[in-house]
Amino acid sequence: MPRVARTPPPLPPVDDAIDKLLHEWKVGHSGKTDSKGALEAELFHGEYSITVKHHKLKDHHVQTVDVDSKADAKIKAP
Question: Domain of life here (predicted)?
Fold first, then answer.
């Protein structure tokens, strides 16, 4: 019986694999704070750009926060 060689499927380019992974890691979260002004969210470790919007603020407040396992991230709006 003759043997048939199988060709494995082509691997995606590295750039495509990285783009797909980064897209999976992107976090889009929005919500409202509780009566104490706190919002709880589960996030991956890393750096996030947080935008705070409130009708009493003249402009949106944007702050960069570094999330790690050692502390809660604190954001102070003006």
Answer: Eukaryota
Nearest-10 Cα torsion for 26, 62, 29, 58: -150
This prediction has a pTM of 0.51
* C-alpha distance from residue 20 to each of 24, 32, 33, 42, 51 (Å): 6, 30, 31, 21, 25
Domain locations in the chain as residue ranges: 45-73
Angstrom distance (rounded) from CA 59 to CA 69:
31
Question: What tokens appear for 16 in the block?
Answer: 């495509």
Distance CA 15, CA 12 (A): 8
